[in-house]
């Protein structure tokens, strides 16, 4: 039996809207940052990492910590800071989190008419269309990365950057590259420009 035209149009609109939604998600994480009002990050020369990083709650250095340290070190040195284990002026801390989320989406579609008693109409004209609601649950993973930059002498947060976005299969399969990409996107908002 051939599908009614209205049903095909609704189905194609649903497919198109899903494609636009997926394209929007693929555009990258939402990044935001904040700077302490009295901070001038160009005045600092050295940086280091907190002794106990938020990603190392288990008492050992995780792979997430190693990936984030490498990415942050690359961004900080590109901005002219020098890494130091001995009394750095800036301390960096970071955290990451992955959580499962779900969206429930409802769409209204035209249902294929049931002719029943009205079988004599079949092929000539249709009864009034009726609509049904389709409910779909979409599950996905969302990753969040926070980077804190602290004035070591004052023990005060001077800058923070946060990225939150939907994780795709490639991010999960290649976490080192994904973390480097996210850290780079966060540091685009850092108030000291990269030095060439």
Automatic annotation (TrEMBL):
Pfam families: DUF4136. It comes from the Bacteria. Keywords: Lipoprotein, Signal. InterPro entries: DUF4136. Residues 1-26 form the signal peptide. Residues 31-191 form the DUF4136 domain. The keyword Hydrolase does not apply. This is Lipoprotein. It comes from Alishewanella longhuensis.
